[in-house]
Design brief:
single chain, 387 residues, alpha+beta, 3-stranded antiparallel β-sheet, elongated
């Protein structure tokens, strides 16, 4: 009898309601996870109930996600779930735009050519531009990559009757490790439609190669909002990205209960691929490298934010000083205006006094008499007479 079985049987003697039993089972799972965290998987037996907890590599990491989708079967499963269509074949296209060095920002890019079958039985090629990032990113980076794909001649589908051909219809997929505003839906389908001048939707003749060459649909996945959402096939496939599954002691690892996918061979195949990644020494090293890059980026961004805050504070202080200087300058200008006005009044008064003095002197009055009459000193009379 194994340690975990003996522990479960001992724990079962406590008894309790069904709700309490469920809580005990959850607790038991946690304890067993602690003891077996260095193992790839372990089994928990409780009341004849077997739970297989698998320790799989966390696909939020670029290196693990790349390892995951490089498997053609998994690529087909993922793209089929994203497009909600049958995918007959997947072709891995050139990856010259893939950011493997990651010296600037965490953004993984990969291109697929998928041959899909529509509901009416028709088949056609679709270009899948998949971009994944685990930190908030400027949309300009996405647009730059998208622009490169639009201008790539390899994405033009040649037709014998046409010299130029048409661009392969494109679907852009964004796997985001962050939330987008207040949008609560974990998965967004942004599809284009065509309308006439009056706003009526046009369907006749569409889809048309010319139109499809100029516009594209998008799928946006908010990985942090996946938790608790398994209502459709895509959410089930993406459930392995749920970061609430992250191992408490090692964020490189996610804990997966294989029973959740017991009747789904495709999902079990994905889980086993992630389990193999967890046991791969090179991939574990790559995850450590990504952590170092992420830490460096975080430190850089923190430094930039602090510098920007200090610059903003300094600018605010300078602006405040400028306002005070402007206010003081306005006060000086106002005082100058008052002085000029007073000077004008004084000049006008002096002119009037000069005229009075001149008139009095013409009448034969002496300086003393004039000073007494005007209420000023004799010196002021003489000064005014000298001007």
């Amino acid at each position: 009898m194994t340690f975990f079985t003996r522990f479960a049987l001992s724990f079962d003697k406590i008894g309790g309601t069904s709700q309490e039993s469920s809580s005990k089972l959850d607790f038991l799972h946690s304890v067993c996870t602690i003891f077996a965290q260095r193992s790839t998987k372990h089994t928990i037996n409780y009341k004849n109930h077997t739970t297989m907890i698998v320790h799989a590599a966390n696909p939020i990491y670029d290196s693990i996600f790349k390892y995951l989708v490089e498997d053609k079967r998994i690529a087909k499963i993922l793209i089929s779930a994203l497009l909600k269509k049958e995918v007959l074949d997947v072709e891995f296209r050139r990856h010259e735009y893939t950011n493997n060095v990651r010296n600037d920002i965490s953004m993984f890019r990969i291109d697929f050519g998928a041959r899909v079958r529509e509901a009416d039985g028709s088949e056609h090629l679709v270009l899948i531009e998949l971009q994944k990032t685990w930190i908030e990113t400027e949309t300009l980076r996405f647009r730059q990559y998208l622009g490169a794909q639009y201008s790539d001649p390899n994405n033009i589908q040649k037709e014998e009757r046409l010299k130029h051909g048409y661009a392969i219809p494109m679907v852009t997929v964004y796997l985001l490790g962050h939330k987008v505003g207040n949008i609560e839906e974990p998965i967004l389908y942004v599809n284009h439609k065509s309308y006439d001048y009056n706003g009526h939707e046009i369907t006749q003749g569409l889809p048309d190669p010319f139109v499809e060459s100029l516009v594209h649909n998008s799928i946006i996945v908010q990985i942090p909002r996946l938790h608790g959402h398994v209502n459709n096939r895509l959410e089930e496939v993406l459930s392995v990205f749920d970061q609430n599954r992250t191992n408490e002691f090692n964020h490189h690892i996610i804990n997966i209960n294989e029973e959740e996918y017991a009747n789904d061979d495709d999902m079990l195949y994905i889980v086993r691929r992630l389990t193999a990644a967890a046991a791969n020494a090179k991939l574990r090293h790559d995850m450590n490298v990504e952590d170092e890059f992420f830490t460096a980026i975080e430190n850089r961004d923190t430094t930039i934010m602090n510098n920007e805050r200090e610059i903003a504070e300094q600018r605010a202080y300078i602006n405040e000083q400028k306002c005070q200087i402007n206010e003081q300058q306005n006060q000086l200008n106002e005082q100058k205006c008052q002085i000029n006005e007073q000077q004008s009044q004084l000049n006008e008064k002096n002119k009037m006094l000069q005229s009075a003095i001149k008139a009095m002197m013409n009448n034969g009055l002496d300086v003393a008499t004039i000073a007494t009459s005007l209420g000023i000193t004799a010196g002021e009379v003489e000064a005014l007479m000298a001007k």
